[in-house]
UniProtKB/TrEMBL annotation:
Gene that specifies this protein: ybeY
Function comment: Single strand-specific metallo-endoribonuclease involved in late-stage 70S ribosome quality control and in maturation of the 3' terminus of the 16S rRNA.
Cofactor or coenzyme needed: Zn(2+)
Keywords: Cytoplasm, Endonuclease, Hydrolase, Metal-binding, Nuclease, Ribosome biogenesis, rRNA processing, Zinc
Cofactor annotation remark: Binds 1 zinc ion.
Binding site residues for Zn(2+): 125, 129, 135
Protein localization: Cytoplasm
Any one Pfam family match given in the protein's UniProt record, by short name: YbeY
Coiled-coil annotated spans: none
Protein name per UniProt: Endoribonuclease YbeY
E.C. number: 3.1.-.-
Amino acid sequence: MQLEIDIEDWPAPAAPWGDWAALATRALNAVQQVAPELANPRLETSLLFTSDAEIHALNREWRGRDKATNVLSFPMLERAELLALAPEGPPQMLGDIALAYETCAREAAEKDVPLEAHAAHLIIHGLLHLAGHDHAISAEDAETMEALEVLALAQMGIANPYSEN
């Protein structure tokens, strides 16, 4: 998969994380280990690091929710289409993801985790949504998605964000 990354209104990440594009690439590589359907070379995804104001506007326009949120995902393929996609052929847009800086930073501080770790979690979460996983469908779907997130984060050396510790 190719990631098209646009970074607006996000300060440089702390060492040793590299830059946001490098972190996003690491998150993509990790999630591809647990969700191999995302490793299809034809896939393209856009990832926007932006402000709460922009996320608020996107959420209002496309989801009818008049508030900011941490991450938005806009899938362009159904899960069945993704799973049936042959590796040869023209590029295929999987979807778009957008992360809101202020909300992500606040949540990271509340959880007492580095912003970079929380951002990696949200990128993985967004990619899994684009792959057709949805925690809002049922408790079983939520458990499956959470387990995939935890496995992908472990690939990056990031602790389970759902643990009670």
